[in-house]
Sequence to fold (222 residues):
Amino acid sequence: MIKAVVIDVDDTLCMTEASSFELENEVLAAMGRPPIERAVHLTTWGEPLLAAMPKRSPGLDLEVFSPLFQTTMERHVAEGRLDVIPPENLAALDELVLSGRTVMLLTSRTGPEVRHMLEPDHVLAERISGVWHRDNTRHGKPDPRAFDELLAHTGLSPSQCVYVGDSPGDAIAAGGAGMAFVACLQSGVRGLGDFDERYVTASIAAFPEVVQVVEELSRIPR
Fold:
């Protein structure tokens, strides 16, 4: 029985790669640096931001980049240019909650990068019961221990959870933790062939399909 649905943020709950590409290049332009090549951004997508940026912009001063990125990101969020969750995805979350399942987020973002999603007036406020990120977990994906704090806090076993994500690292983390994994391919950044099939329980073309998949997985003894 699946009791909890754990969801990645970027290119899973909301489509963010293209928006993040624009955001990061805006920050780099303000610093007088050349733009990131799109191919480089795609190949490093899914890595924690501050681990990926030296690859995207070699020689970047992260101490200058980080605060400028934060203020620019906040402006993009306020302008509706980043982290916009489509109505159909919110409806899917509502269906999961109405089915009696706990819904949580687990992301490679840092606390400041998800702070706006934790506001009491955010659309997620009454839909999710917890957000796990790089600042409240000891390990990051693809390490299976990325789920340790979430599992300890909820008292759930891995077999009672399913993780929904968009990257091969998401799959490795979930599979290594003994958790079912659903690959969300909606962004088009990756195809099913990019994943290690050993760790993929199911795949979906669009996020709302997760409702039916979770129902099907819940009927399979684990």
User: Anything to note?
Assistant: The mean pLDDT is 97. The first strand starts at residue 4 and ends at 7. Residues 17-78 form a domain with the DNA polymerase; domain 1 fold (CATH 1.10.150).
